[in-house]
């Protein structure tokens, strides 16, 4: 059985105004003990999981034996993993190869454009990374500055050139829709510039203004820096998204997940595990894991995490068994994110449910499409996917 591994590196140069993740500007002195603890969690995962009573994924011959698993995807996210010394990232990859049976098809590193140097790019490739996820987010300097990003348009162009020169077979770039001061014209310009770069993979994310983020507080309070009027409306953003779908398709990109497009053969293998409910392990502070029957997460504070691992204990902060009802919801909410859709007959048989009486109103409204046994979201309703999925489960 194959397994994906996610590594959380929560270090940032600064906190983006829209961010509500478990990341931060931690002291640089914390990086070394954190990476040391992370490598210890990786190398000692079997004893840590045995002590915590965590079983290997469902389907493994011996439920307590992780040795039967093959790691085929690795993803280092954050935070800004590219901030760390290249030697630290190489040490993490070495620990993975030493602690697991690896046959890695995809090893992704998240990077911010301003952190990419010729030396780092070469070292990342030598360490075994095959794919860089570059956080472009916009090609408009005003929008980048408004959200606290440290890079500018020129940094993204330079980073792409350096990464290609280093020989990376795959690059993924992202844009965010709904940024402060963003207009239809500036978003279309950013999309044009992104398409000109022709990365193998593109992600488009619609900004969620969270009340716990700095941006969220500014918008809610009508602060003078942003104010609600400076943030595009949801209807506008949905229109931009629909237009972007058309442009990406015309450019030869396959739309395979609500927020993701790829050139042929370049889908994100690791992230696809999440949408398909495949097993994965998360290592590091705040990282989440799933073995098919349980979900759990490590303590999110990096210092507390490192101290616990160094003391020989896995600092699990959240842990819960996945109930049958939750598994069904996950099948719907995650599966319908994929444009391939879900096998409705399989789900109905496996969970003993009948969705047929709920489909007519959604079909009539043009929210879903049913082709034989395969149920999909209608392309025109992708931007409102959560509402459609919720109605299906009601």
Molecular structure report:
The strands form 3 sheets. This protein has a 9-stranded mixed β-sheet, with helices on both faces. A 3-stranded antiparallel β-sheet has the order 10-11-12, with no helix packed on it. The chain has a 3-stranded antiparallel β-sheet with strand order 13-15-14. With 394 residues, it is an alpha/beta fold. It is globular, with a radius of gyration of 21 Å. The model has no long low-confidence stretch (mean pLDDT 90). α3 packs parallel to α4 (118-127). It is built from 15 helices and 15 strands. It has 2 domains: 2-275, 2-Layer Sandwich (Transcription Regulator spoIIAA); 324-393, Orthogonal Bundle (Arc Repressor Mutant, subunit A), CATH 1.10.10.
What secondary-structure arrangement, pairings included, does this model have?
Elements: E1 2-9, H1 31-43, H2 45-52, E2 70-78, H3 86-99, E3 101-111, H4 118-127, E4 131-137, H5 141-146, H6 153-165, E5 170-177, H7 184-197, E6 201-206, H8 214-221, H9 234-250, E7 254-257, E8 260-262, H10 269-275, E9 280-283, E10 288-290, E11 294-298, H11 302-310, E12 316-321, H12 324-335, E13 342-343, H13 344-351, H14 359-364, E14 368-371, E15 374-377, H15 385-393
Parallel strand pairs: 1-2, 1-9, 2-3, 3-4, 4-5, 5-6
Antiparallel strand pairs: 6-8, 7-8, 10-11, 11-12, 13-15, 14-15
């Amino acid at each position: 059985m194959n397994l994906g591994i996610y590594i959380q590196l929560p270090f940032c140069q600064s906190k983006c105004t829209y961010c509500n993740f478990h990341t931060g500007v931690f002291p640089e002195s914390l990086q070394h003990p954190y990476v040391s603890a992370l490598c210890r969690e990786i190398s000692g995962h079997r004893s840590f999981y045995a002590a915590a009573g965590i079983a290997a994924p469902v389907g493994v011959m011996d439920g307590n034996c992780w040795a039967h698993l093959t790691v085929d995807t690795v993803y280092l996210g954050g935070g800004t993993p590219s901030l760390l010394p290249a030697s630290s990232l190489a040490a993490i990859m070495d620990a993975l190869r030493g602690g697991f049976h690896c046959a890695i098809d995809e090893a992704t590193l998240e990077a911010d454009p301003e952190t990419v140097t010729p030396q780092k790019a070469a070292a990342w490739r030598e360490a075994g990374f095959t794919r860089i996820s570059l956080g472009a987010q916009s090609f408009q300097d005003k929008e980048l500055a408004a959200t606290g990003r440290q890079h500018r348009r020129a940094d993204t162009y330079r980073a792409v050139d350096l990464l290609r020169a280093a020989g990376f077979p795959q690059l993924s770039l992202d844009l965010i829709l709904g940024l402060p001061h963003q207009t239809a014209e500036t978003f279309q310009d950013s999309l044009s510039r992104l398409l000109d770069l022709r990365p193998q993979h593109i992600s488009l994310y619609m900004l969620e203004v969270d009340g716990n983020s700095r941006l969220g507080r500014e918008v809610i309070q009508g602060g003078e820096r942003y104010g609600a009027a400076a943030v595009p409306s949801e209807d506008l953003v949905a229109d931009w998204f629909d237009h972007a779908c058309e442009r990406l398709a015309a450019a030869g990109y396959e739309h395979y997940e609500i927020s993701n497009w790829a050139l042929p053969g370049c889908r994100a293998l690791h992230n696809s595990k999440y949408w398909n409910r495949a097993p994965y392990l998360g290592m590091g502070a705040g990282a989440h894991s799933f073995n098919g029957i349980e979900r759990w997460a490590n303590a999110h504070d990096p210092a507390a995490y490192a101290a616990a691992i160094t003391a020989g204990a896995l600092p699990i902060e959240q842990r819960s068994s996945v109930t049958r009802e939750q598994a069904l919801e996950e099948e719907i909410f995650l599966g319908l994110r994929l444009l391939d859709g879900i096998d409705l007959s399989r789900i109905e048989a496996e969970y003993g449910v009948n969705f047929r009486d709920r489909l007519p109103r959604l079909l009539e409204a043009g929210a879903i499409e049913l082709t034989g046994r395969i149920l999909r979201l209608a392309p025109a309703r992708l931007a409102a996917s959560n509402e459609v999925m919720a109605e299906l489960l009601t």
